[in-house]
Amino acid sequence: MPPPLPHIPGWSLAAMYRPAGAENEVGGDFYDAFPVADGWMLVIGDVTGRGARAASITALARYTLRTAAALTNDPQIALATLNRALLARRDTSLCSIAALTLSDDPRQPVRMAVAGHLPPLLVDGEEVREATTSDQVLGAFPEGEWRIGECQVEPGQQLVMTTDGIVEAEGEEGRFGEQRLRAELVGAGNPAGAVQRLESALRAFTADRLDDDVAVLAVARSAESAVPAPLVGGLSLSGDG
């Protein structure tokens, strides 16, 4: 299981991770949150494969991102560093990532870079839209550019990131899909509510059977929040929820 989410003053976080497979073999989805200069970085990602190979790529991704981000506080440089590390492996190792940098001052825009991943969704009451665009996946090309997007998150709004396991989940009606994903987020008032809605909808849609891992990470501005809760039953909360 991913580590518990940290307490980040001025921000509220919630996350969910559900592994797939009858024996819950180690998969390639992950999320992380760690301090950087003047703020925090949140990442969510998906690597190729399953089992021990996926675990090794996930570990490489998490610790490379943590090291590069701590040194530079720049999601763009962090992705470029991870791209070089993946290309240095002898096998084909692809990784899709969405990375957000939160300022210690929640009034400042959230900076983000996306590599081959579903873009973060900005949830604003009845409106749900992409907060930025996605660039090329990591580990495919030695020369790549990952643009920095900015999104002002106002009180009452939130950013929600998911791995593609949720939109590609299969049920009797076909794929869960992006349209259903956005519809479930309409009106979600806080990160905990958004994550719980998606988890409930996914369980009902798939009859609680997943073919791929699913991870969700949501963040919003908040008042000073309570002590973070530990990861229990696949749901982790931080902030006032």
Concise synopsis of the structure shown:
The protein contains five helices and 13 strands. With about 240 residues, it is an alpha+beta fold.
Task: Walk me through this protein's architecture.
The protein is of the alpha+beta class and 241 residues long. The protein has a single domain (11-221), classed as PPM-type phosphatase domain (Phosphatase 2c, domain 1, 4-Layer Sandwich), CATH 3.60.40.10. The chain is built from 5 helices and 13 strands. The strands form 3 sheets. Strands 7-6-9-12-1-13 form a 6-stranded antiparallel sheet. A 5-stranded antiparallel sheet has the order 2-3-4-5-8, with helices on one face. The radius of gyration is 17 Å and the shape is globular. The two termini are 21 Å apart.
How is this fold's topology laid out?
Layout: E1 11-18, E2 29-36, E3 39-47, H1 51-72, H2 75-87, E4 95-103, E5 110-115, E6 121-124, E7 127-130, E8 149-151, E9 158-162, H3 164-167, E10 170-171, E11 174-175, H4 177-185, H5 191-206, E12 214-221, E13 235-238
Antiparallel strand pairs: 1-12, 1-13, 2-3, 3-4, 4-5, 5-8, 6-7, 6-9, 9-12, 10-11
